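[Q] Does anyone have a clean structure-token version of this?
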Amino acid sequence: MKITALAGGVGGAKLLIGLQSALPSEDLTAIVNTGDDSVIYGVHVSPDVDIVTYWLAGIADRARGWGIAGDTFDVVESIAALGGDSWFRLGDRDLATCLHRTERLRTGASLSVITDEIRTSLGVRTRVVPMSDEPVHTRIVSEDTVYEFQEWFVRERQQPRVTAVEFEGLDDAKPAPGVLDLISDADVVVLCPSNPVVSIGPILALPEVREKLREHPRVVAVSPIVQGAPVKGPADKLLAASGTEVTASGVAGLYADFCDIFVMDERDAAEAEKVEGMGMSALVVDTLMTDPAASERLAHSVIGVA
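[A] Here you go.
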């Protein structure tokens, strides 16, 4: 069974390690959000791509959810000692990844080629593909202020009230080479339990992606919302700003035009009938991925229903 997964952030990474354990290496591909990308400390940072890659490589800092386990922060601390901004905690080994990416981009390599080089060098079996080679920037609008996503998420600690979310650059962006075929040719497409607004949303907003999903006979989405709250991250604030109910069924409504099976947590079983009323089948299981074994159990549930 060939699976193409749309992913971003820790929720996506956790399901991907389960899927990677359950499938042959050539049968899993992750298409990853790049709307969070930013230039920080003069280097191109791809947070979602790197989170996914590090988790799949088995080197992620699981406690933080981001970065590399055991990394040092000498560079950032030295920047702070010099009086510079150091609100983005980029570890030294993580910085090396970003330096390599930046230099390769400067010499003309595409983001998708560089991403493949990095995952190969780290021994990742799963193919990791950025959603686009063109820049798309997620902007958080709060009253009269517009923040880059990392500014709002990290520097401002998600405190400014969100009034809108915008994706700058979409008019000039297209899916990375192979993305549309990876969706069409997959036996199953899985939407990971990633933030529906800023991790999955930018991928769906690219030209033809949503149309390809509507045409696909087997699309499975996993809810990132359990009992009215995100398992991790600010999805509740972003969903509310977009006028979406912060519930499993609220997320299901965002995907209803193309999703065939919606996987939701057993704690939200009462919402299954509402989900099925939208034209999807509902699978109710334990979706909390507290360790790799739980990730693999959820992955097998997804594969089984598909």
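[Q] Thanks! Anything notable?
[A] The longest strand covers residues 137-142.
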